[in-house]
Amino acid sequence: MMTDKTMAALPAYFCCAIHDLRCASMPDLFRAPYRSRFAPRLYSTASDKEGFFISLINISNLTFAFDGSYDNIFEDVSFHLDTDWKTGFVGRNGRGKTTFLKLLAGEYKYSGHITAAVDFKYFPFPIVNKSAQTLDVAQACAPEADDWEICREMNLLGLNAELLYRPFITLSGGEQTKVMLASLFLAQDSFLLIDEPTNHLDMQGREKLGKYLNSKKGFILVSHDRAFLDSCTDHTISLNKQNIELHRGNFSSWYENKQRQDNLEKHKNEKLKKEIRRLNESAAQASRWSDKTEKSKFGKGSSGLKPDRGFVGKKAAKLMKRSTNLSKRRAAAAEEKASLLKNTETTGDLKITQEQYKSGLLLALENVNIFYSGKTAAGGVNLKITEGSRIALCGANGSGKSSVLKLICGENLSYTGRMIKGGDLKISYLPQDIPDINCTLRELAQSNNIDESLLKSILTNLGFTRGQLGKNIRDFSMGQKKKTLIAKCLCERSNLLVWDEPLNYIDIFSRMQIEELILKFKPAMIYTEHDASFCQNTATEIIRL
């Protein structure tokens, strides 16, 4: 008998087939309705005492579209989740990950059914009174929890209990994130829907939060940080172009299976393309021979004798039948080919047109100290940027990384030490915060004197659809807005890229594309980023503040 333990050792596409066979023998009550366009294939299941495969969160025929939209974001989605799973949720920006979490949380009306034996809690939740004490905020979220339990959870997250007696608004973004998550996990009978909790956390904070989440169970986590997902998830939901898939394992396990499946489909696709060409040629040749044979019925042989029309007609019919059979085989192969590569992420190559600077040294800081209101924001900074340098500034929140970038970009900050900056140095700056942009892509290109077609080409390669390119930027998701700012930087003529946390809200596939861009073109750049994988893969030098 094939056990769940044995299935876990198999590649996902084998487990998928085995699970389908299992479901075929189940009563209808327990069988997952897989046949819709967005129905997932389950690679793992939970089992009850009688041996049937059930889960405590059931989603059936879920369909949803925003008011005024002609296209459904989700259509006939059906799958099951176990409330003990630690589930990562991945997919391109704009696919509907946040929308899906809010559907589970009951914030939107939908058709279909969502049933669960738990209460869904969404992070981040709105704080009515941010001036209230942090303890009051935590107790409002988890009224059943005792004070010592709140202190215990905060300690697990590396927070000092003294923060409970400070106004919530005075906490840093990372501290607020941790307090809210600790409160949610203390709420009874709750299943957490965690939407991008790492945006305000430094590397150390992400590592601590990953360990904390790994000690818990019962949540869906939307994140684009690969190392973070690997540290705390045991299942992965992927929101694909054509369906939703559920996989047993963390992000790396899912991505390895996806690459294997994509490569198999690409190989099969190439094989079918060659087969279709061969069948087309054979069918056309058989048809020509049939026509030529049919015409010969009415002529005479070289001996002057008339041919046997019955024999010739039978031969022509046989050739025509062969042509028809070849055409049917070609149609079947074309249909099989059309079913392939529907979920393969098409990640086109990105390009950058950075101008070469007139000298080797672009910028240098020598023992620089930066001050705000008389207090040191960053101290003892030394760095040198030359052609091809890719410097990553790392450090805890508040260590002055953004201040260094702002000083380089010419902001009027108080500092001591020496800054050497090349004359006529052209800098393309990407801010950490996303500004409110109320215009179309065409208007953005015109106002910044950049090539509109190049801007749209980059965004298309980053996963934008044709319909999204015509929308107002104000209506984009946060990830799409950040991609727009990155694309704008790539279009600008510059000698140096200065990026402040460029990957906030950016999906995993786009992060990999940006990595490949940097490694291929080797632009001069200095940036801050808390994605450990990105820094390790792209930086020529890491400076810790």
Concise overview:
The protein has 545 residues and is an alpha/beta fold. Helix content is 40%, strand content 20%.
Topology:
Blueprint lengths: L3 H5 L3 H13 L21 E2 L5 E2 L2 E8 L9 E8 L4 E6 L5 H8 L6 E6 L2 E5 L10 H8 L5 H10 L16 H14 L3 E6 L7 H12 L4 E4 L3 H7 L2 E5 L4 E5 L2 H45 L13 H30 L22 E12 L2 E12 L3 E5 L6 H8 L5 E8 L5 E4 L10 H7 L4 H10 L4 H4 L8 H14 L4 E5 L7 H14 L3 E4 L3 H7 L2 E4 L1
Parallel strand pairs: 5-9, 5-10, 7-8, 8-9, 14-18, 14-19, 16-17, 17-18
Antiparallel strand pairs: 1-2, 3-4, 3-6, 10-11, 12-13, 12-15
Helix pairs in contact: 4-6, 5-6, 7-8, 9-10, 13-15
What does this structure look like?
The strands form five sheets. Strands 7-8-9-5-10-11 form a six-stranded mixed beta sheet, sandwiched between helices. The chain contains 17 helices and 19 strands. The chain is globular. The model is unreliable at 1-54 (pLDDT under 50). It has helices spanning 4-8, 12-24, 97-104, 134-141, 147-156, 173-186, 203-214, 226-232, 251-295, 309-338, 401-408, 441-447, 452-461, 466-469, 478-491, 508-521, 532-538, and strands at 46-47, 53-54, 57-64, 74-81, 86-91, 111-116, 119-123, 190-195, 219-222, 235-239, 244-248, 361-372, 375-386, 390-394, 414-421, 427-430, 496-500, 525-528, 541-544. A hairpin with a 5-residue loop joins strand 1 (46-47) and strand 2. By secondary structure, the chain is an alpha/beta fold. Helix 4 runs parallel beside helix 6, helix 7 (203-214) runs parallel beside helix 8 (226-232) and helix 9 packs antiparallel against helix 10. The protein is 40% helix and 20% strand.
